[in-house]
Amino acid sequence: MQQPLGEQIRVRLEADAPVFAEKKGFREAWRQIKRDRFLYALAALPLLYFVVFRYLPMVGLIIAFQNYDPFLGIGAMFSLENFVGFKHFTNFFDSIFFWNVVRNTVLISFYKLLFGFPLPIILALLINEVRITVFQRTVQTISYLPHFFSMVVAAGIVRAMLTPQGGLLNQAIVAFGGEAQAFLTDPNLFRSILVTMDIWQQAGWNSIIFLAAMATINPEMYEAAAMDGANRFQRMWYVTLPSISFAIVIILIFRIGGMLDAGFEQILLLYSPSVYSVSDIIDTYVYRAGLIGRQYSFGAAVGLFKSVLALILMYMANKVAQYLGQEGLW
Amino acid sequence: MKLSRGEKLFDWINIFVLAILTLFFLIPFLSVVSTSLVSGREYALRGLFILYPYRPVLSSYDMLLGQGSIVVNAYIVTVARVVVGTGLGLAFTFPLAYVLSKRRLYGRVPITMFIFFTMLFHGGLIPNFVLVEKIRLLDSFWSMIWPVLINPWWLLIMRNFMLAIPEELEEAAIMDGASPLVVLLRVYLPLSMPVIATIGLWYAVFHWNQWFDAAIYINDPKKLPLQLILRGILEYGTGQYSDYSGLAEMTELTDPPPAESLKAAMIVITTLPILMIYPFIQRYFVRGIMLGSIKG
Amino acid sequence: MTTQSRPTRRQFLQGVGMAATGAVLAACAPPVAAPAGDGGAMETPEIWFGTTNPCPGGGNPERTDAVRQLILEETGVLVNTNILPPGAAATEKLNLLLASGTQPLDLFVGNWPDFKGITLPMDDLLDVHGADILAGHSDLDWRMMKDFEGTTWGYPRLGLMGHTHFPYFRTDWLDEAGLEIPDTWDGMEHAYEAMKEMHDEAVIVAMGRRHLMYNTLGAFTDHGFSRWIDPADNMLKPPELQPGYQDWLAKMNEWWDNGWLQRESFANPDYRAMLKTLTIGVWLGWYSRMTIWWDQIRRDAGYEKEDYDFALKITGPAGVAKTNNAGSNSAYMIPRKSNHPEAVIKYANWIYEDGPDDVTNYLIASWGVPGEDWEWVDKEGKVARLHSAGSTVCEEKYSRDFQITLGLGPETWATAVKLQQDDGTIEWNRHWQHINTYWNQYDGGRMPVDFDVPYDRTAIRDAFPGEPDFERFVEEESIKFITGARPIVEWGNFVDEMNNAGLEQWSELYTQQYRLYHP
To answer: Which BP terms does GO give this entry (chain A) (predicted)?
Structure first.
C-alpha cells in the first residue's frame, strides 16, 4: 500500500536520470551553467562562507599528526619538527580501554537511536491528530521544555529522583515495602537511565521537524483516503508517514552519523567508577586524557578518528537510503 | 464532517495519552520554577523535590537580574545576537538550500559533498581563534555571528524539504513568465515556510544559548551575552569552583540564596523568553499551508 | 599571530636557561603615558593580569579606578585586568591569550610545569623586588615552585595544606549517646554504631575514594594516601600497593556490607542535598562542604542542636589515619612576553609587604579603598567592616579585579579578619576560622612521602600515554573491592592486571622525577 509515494519517487528518479550532465561534455556543461547562472549567483556568497570559516580553519586538523603546543602559535603547525605521524592514533588504539570505550559509545548511541528516534515521530503523529488547536499547541510547547534544561540541571533532577537518600522513586519503593536502591551505581540499569533521560529531554524538541514536515502534506490526500474508507490509523500509516519519509530519512542519516557522540556531558555528569565499565565512552576517555596538560593533539587525533568513522557510517546509510528509493544526502 | 464513534474514541485516547506525557515534561519544569522561588531557609527544611513553594521569595532573581545595567546590557546583546544571527543565518541558508534542491544543477553532487564534509571535519579552537583575530573580529559583536553563520546539517535538512516540493510548480510558474527570482520568492519561499520556521527556531535557540565563543572572542564587558554573565554569577554564587575556597570566595556572598535556587532561577530566566518565540512559529505548522499557497 | 619562525620547545628551554639572568634586565618597556603631575621623569609601567572574577564584567568602573589610583600612588604601577571567563573556558582563553601574544598579559595562574618554556624564571625578580613575597612563604612552599635545578618559576598559590581533611561527626547524636568525639579508629566505629542504633537513617558518607583515603588510609598503612618507596626495589609505587591497603579495603568492604557507607559515596551525588536530609552521621570528605555548605544550611534552617564537629586526629592500628594534602604546583607566573615583569613583582610584593599581622594591602586588593569601600573597626583585633554587603551587585562595588595573591600566603593570613555586621555584632566566619586555625597544623596527619616533589605530570603523560588508563583502572577496581563486586581473594589477579596496565612504566617515571629531588 506504500505504492503512491514509492511510485511517485520512482517516476521522479527516472525523470531525473537523463539530467546528469557530466557525460555530455564540456560544451553542454557550460550551456547548463549559463542557463542556471542565477542559481550559481545565489550560491556564491554562502559557499564563500564555507571556504573562509569552515575550510580555512581545517589546517588545524594537521595537529592530530603532531606534538602540538598552542604556545608555539599557528606557524608551528607547518613545521616538520613537530610531526609524530600516527602516534596519537596508535596511543588511542593501544589503550587497554579502547575496545571498551568504542563498544560503550556504539551501544549507548544505538539504544538512544533505537528508542529515541521513533518516539518523536510517534509524538508528532499524535499531536498532529489532535483537533483542539489550543490543546495541540499547549502540548507541543510543553513537550519541548526539558530541552532547555542545561545538562547540569537535567542531571541534577535525575539524581534527585533516583538517590537512595530521600529520592522520589526510592520513597515510592519504600512506601510499597521495598528497599531503597542506588540506581545510578547499578551497571545493569545505567544505560537504560541514560536512554530514558535522553528521550525525556529531547523527544518533544525532536518532534518539531516532523510536525513541520506534516504541515506540507496536501489535505486532499486525507480527504481522498477518507473517501476510500481509511480509518485514522490507516491514514496515519498510509498518508502521513509516507509523506514525511523525506524528513525521516535525512534525520535518520544524520543520527547515524552522530553515532560516535553518545552524550559526553550527560555521561560525565552521571557516571562513576561503579559503572565505568558500561558507560565510559570515547569522549569521556579523551576528557580524562586531557585533564592534565594541554593535550590538543591527542584530542584532535581522536576527533579525526571519529569524523572518519562518521563519514563511513553516513556514506553507508546514504547508500541504503538511495537503494530504498529515498532522497538521501546527495 | 461527522465523526464516527471510533473516531471519537480515538480522539479521547489520544488526548489522554498526550496529557499524561505532558505531565512528564511539565512537572520537572514546575519543580524548577518552584525551586527558583524558595528561600535559603525553606530550601534547607524541604525535601529534594520541591513542587510548590510555601513562601515564595524572589531573592534568586534579585541576585541574577538585580545586577543593574550589566544584565540589561547583556539581554540587549543576546537579543541582538538572536535577531541578527537568525536573520542572516536564514538569509544565507535558504538560497543555498534552494540551489542545492535543483536536481538539474550542474555540479550539484560535488557542491553538496563540499558542504557535507564540513559537518564532520573541524579545525578546532586554535585556527578559529587565529582566523577571527586575523580578520579583526576579536572583541566584536560579529565574532559571534560570522563564524557560525550557516549550520550545514540544517542546510541539508532544509534542502530535503525543498526537494519534496513538486518541480511542476516551478515549471508552471516559468510558463506564466515568472523570472527565477520570482519563482524563488513567490513559489518556494511560501511553500517552505514550515521548514524555514523550524530552522529559524533552531538558529534562534542556538544563538540564545551559545556563550563559549563570546567567552573566547570577547573582552569588553559591554559586549558579553546574557548566558555568559549569568554563568559567571552562578559559578561563584554556588561556590563550587575552588579547591581551596578561602577568604575571597566567602566575602562575595554573605547571605546568598541557596545554590539550587540560583540554578533554577537561571533556567527560568534563560528559558522563558525563548519559549515566547514558539507560538509565532506554530502558525506555520498548520496543515494545508501548501495547498493554500498553490491556489493563491 | 606573527609569522616569524618559532623555536622548538627545547630551544625555548635552552634559551630560557641562558637568558635566565639577562632576560629581566633586557626586558625593555615601550613608552607609556607618564602619570600626571609627576614631571614625566619616570615611565609608569602598565601591567595586565589574567584572572577570573566573581563579576564576569568586572565591578563598578569608578570604584575600580579609585583602587587603581591608590595602587599607583603606593607602588608606581598601573594595574589592569583581562577577566577570564568562568569555568573551563578560562583555561582555553588563557591558552589562546598566551599563544596569540597580541593582547597584553603579564601574570596568570596555573600549574607551573605545564607552562615551562613560555614563562620567566622568577629568582632574580624576587631577589630584587620580592623580599616580602620570599619571606611570606615557607621553604616548603618555595621548593614546590622550583625545578630540580633550583630555578623558581612562579610564586605560590596552593601548597601543603593541613586544614582540608577531618572526619566530622554529628555532635547532637554523640551527645545523645553520651559519647565524646573519638580519637581512635575503634572509637570512631563505636561512635557510629551508637548513632545508628538510635537513628536507623544514620550513614557514613565518603566523598569519593580519594577523600576517603585522605581521611582514613593512614590507619591501616605506613604512608597513608601517598606514593611510597618500596624497599624491595627502591622504586616509587602507588598508594594501593602498600602493605595494609588490602586490610583497608577489607574494612571498607565490611562497612559497605553492614550498610554503613552511604550507597552513593563513590558516585558523586549531590552532597548539598544530602547534607540537608540530616542523615549523615560521619562525614569523610572535603572540609568546605562542612564549613561553608553545612554552616549555611544550619543557619538557614535555624538548627540549634543539630551540628557537626571534627576529630583533630584519629589513630588506627597502623597509626594516624589522616594524610596531609600536599597541594599542587599551582603558581602565579609571568609570561616571557611580559613587558614589565619587575612591575608585577613590585605590585605583588606590596600586597605581601604588611606580613601576617596587618593585611591592609591584601584587603585593598580584595575589597577596595579603606575608608571608602571598607574600614578597620579595630585594626589590632582584626575587625573590619565592609561598606557594601557581600551580596552588593557588581555594578556598585569594586570586585577584587587586582587581587593576585589568592590561596596560601596573604589570603590565609587574612582569614584572621572578623567582620562587624550591620547590627554591630562581630562575626568570625566558621570557614575563615577553620582555615586560619588549621592551615599549618600538620601533626594531625601523615606527611606524604613525596610531598615536596613538584611532578611534571605533562612530561609523565607524554612518556606514558596510558597513565590516565592506569589511574582509571586502579580507581575502578578498588571501588569494586570495596562494594564487593570483586572479592578480596582476587587481589593477586588485580596486581597482575596492574602490571599489564603499565605499573612498571608508571613506577619508573615517578621514581625518576622523585630522585631528582631526593637523590
So the answer is: transmembrane transport
